[in-house]
Design brief:
4-stranded antiparallel sheet, EC 3.4.24.-, Zinc metalloprotease, transmembrane, metallopeptidase activity, 2 domains, single chain
Length: 336
């Protein structure tokens, strides 16, 4: 049952993403031929006025098939006959919807469970923060000139310092102050600390919850780009990367831990799915975004046949990577 909940949660992310493409296609007067959740063989479908809504066997993605997005059409409602800015709005709507979903999920969690704010509620005597003059009521806003706006962001940034001295910026009475602090080691949790406790915000208002949702999503975006940076630097090993099998396994564990754990994981994956999709690689939304931006800036349209070949190759590469990652998930599963 937990695996079913995990698959449904992952399906929600795909539906929201594809719905972004779908609704903007409709708004721009583009004929949508298929709206599919899943890939591979068709399980069942419902034929609407002009769109067929499909459920397919493999729950690893989905797509919106528009008239003129694969083969050139002379129909005025075809995707290929729309202006670059209209096509751009359709493509970018998917990732934007995933970011919106991430914000909404985090906001719902905050409204029901509350959250931890980077406002200091207590300072441990004789610890580095107390020695540096930090007091209860101070708001932690930066580490080494990098802005933070969540408690989780503060903890993560502090852990990356590996115990080295850091410049911590805080706000007191609407004035910013910066102090240099050398963290100490928490042997129980094996992490760097400075001796401060966050403020627990309970019964959050709608405004506070939405602000929390935006802050959490911004934090995830930064961390995801940081992860990609580590990949290019060769600082990631196979145990740090997972595919569909790992997602379902981890989501199943989250579902077992409760609805809010599953919602938190879904919000994380939704934000990461948005970032992954804007990577400028053929067949991904990011590849199309670069193409349409090129058309808007230069006023030149690239050859549709050449673009089609490039996208086909890109899609084949993505499918090959998906297969390899799935094999890796089975042979070398992530420890959870």
């Amino acid at each position: 049952m937990y695996i079913i909940w995990a698959i449904l949660a992952f399906g929600l992310l795909v539906i929201v993403h594809e719905f972004g493409h779908f609704i903007m296609a409709k708004a721009n007067g583009i004929k949508v031929e298929e709206f599919s959740i899943g890939m591979g063989p068709k399980l069942f479908g419902i034929k609407g006025k002009e769109t067929e809504y499909l459920i397919k066997l493999l729950p690893i993605g989905g797509y919106v098939k528009m008239l003129g997005d694969e083969e050139k059409s002379n129909d005025e409602r075809a995707f290929n006959n729309k202006s670059p800015i209209r096509k751009l709005s359709v493509v970018i709507a998917g990732p934007i919807m995933n970011l919106v979903l991430s914000v909404v999920l985090f906001a719902i969690i905050a409204s029901f469970k509350g959250y931890l704010s980077p406002v200091v509620s207590k300072v441990v005597p004789s610890n580095p923060a107390a020695v540096a003059g930090i007091q209860a009521g101070d708001k932690l806003i930066g580490i080494n000139e990098k802005k933070i706006d969540t408690w989780e962001g503060f903890v993560t940034a502090l852990s990356k310092t590996k115990g080295e001295a850091v410049n911590i910026t805080y706000e007191r009475n609407n004035q910013e102050k910066t102090v240099k602090i050398t963290p100490i080691k928490d042997t129980k949790e094996n992490r760097s600390i400075i001796g401060v406790y966050p403020t627990a915000v309970e019964n959050a208002t709608i405004g506070q919850s939405l602000k929390r949702g935006v802050s959490e999503t911004k934090f995830l975006i930064k961390e995801t780009f940081g992860f990609f940076g580590k990949i290019f630097k060769g600082q990631i090993n196979k145990n740090d990367v997972g595919g569909p099998v790992s997602i379902v396994r981890i989501s199943g564990k989250a579902a077992k831990a409760g609805i809010f754990s599953l919602m938190t994981l879904s919000a994380y994956i939704s934000a990461q799915l948005a970032i992954f999709n804007i990577i400028p690689f053929p067949a991904l939304d990011g590849g199309h975004i670069i193409l349409f931006l090129f058309e808007m800036i230069t006023g030149r349209k690239l050859d549709d046949n050449k673009v089609g070949v490039i996208n086909y190759i890109g899609f084949a590469i993505l499918m090959a990577i998906m297969v390899l990652v799935t094999i890796k998930d089975i042979l070398y599963p992530i420890n959870i």
